[in-house]
Automatic annotation (TrEMBL):
Family matches, as SUPFAM superfamilies: SMI1/KNR4-like
Domain Knr4/Smi1-like: 39-203
Highest taxon in the source lineage: Bacteria
Organism: Actinoplanes oblitus
Protein name: SMI1/KNR4 family protein
InterPro entries tied to this protein: Knr4/Smi1-like_dom (IPR018958), Knr4/Smi1-like_sf (IPR037883)
Length: 216
């Protein structure tokens, strides 16, 4: 586990949830509602990792143990980890994009990629357009048949963000923008460095506080 201190997070989220302008933060009103679910116990985390066959990246592991198994967080919130039918799984709009059985496999990409880059614009002819989208979907399905990527939240309009669990970019957050044809991109901090889970979450927390403070 990393030595990250998360001890301030629950109090800060509670303060935001009690603020009269809490609904001004994107995703809070119709998403997480400022609720943080309880953290996992060490035994529960061990069960999760045994079931997925992989150890989760340290920053996210420490968050699960010290702060929460899901809820309040970036965009519409962190997909919560719940035990369903005796097995652990992440739940939420897009959580099923994670191939839980393959999280131990290396996510093969290190740089941004677009499965359908190079395809021409859709044709005007209706019959030809059907063929075009069939080919588009085939390329997308083939190119996204990989493991090692854990989806953690959705931003609406089928945009989602995910954490690399295994592979050369382990611990880095990635943006899935395939909904508008822009592909997958490793996320970066303000200084251009790779964006890990801790900074990703804390950047959201800082920005949320700035939003409500600006309304005061």
């Amino acid at each position: 586990m990393t030595g990250i201190d998360w001890s301030d997070v629950r109090a800060r989220v509670a303060a935001l949830g009690a603020h009269p302008d809490r609904g001004e933060v994107f995703g809070a009103r119709w998403g997480h509602g400022w609720v943080l679910e309880p953290p996992l116990s060490t035994a529960e985390l061990a069960e999760v990792e045994a079931q997925i066959g992989a150890e989760l990246p340290g920053e996210y592991r420490s968050f699960l143990l010290q702060v929460s198994r899901g809820g309040a967080g970036p965009a519409y919130g962190l997909f919560p980890l719940r035990r369903v039918g005796g097995r652990w799984r992440w739940e939420g709009d897009g959580a099923d994009l994670t191939d839980w059985a393959r999280l131990g496999e290396a996510f093969p990409h290190s740089e941004a990629f677009n499965p359908v880059e190079g395809m021409p614009e859709p044709p005007d002819d209706e019959e030809a357009e059907d063929d075009y989208w069939a080919e588009h979907d085939r390329l997308m399905e083939e190119a996204t048949d990989f493991g090692g990527l854990l989806y953690l939240c959705h931003l609406g309009c089928a945009y989602r963000e995910a954490l690399v669990v295994s592979g050369p970019r382990r611990g880095v957050m990635w943006a899935d923008q395939t909904a508008d044809g822009d592909g997958f991109t490793p996320m970066r901090d303000d200084d251009g460095s790779p964006l890990g889970f801790a900074r990703w979450f804390r950047r959201w927390l800082d920005n949320s506080e700035h939003v409500v403070a600006a309304k005061t």
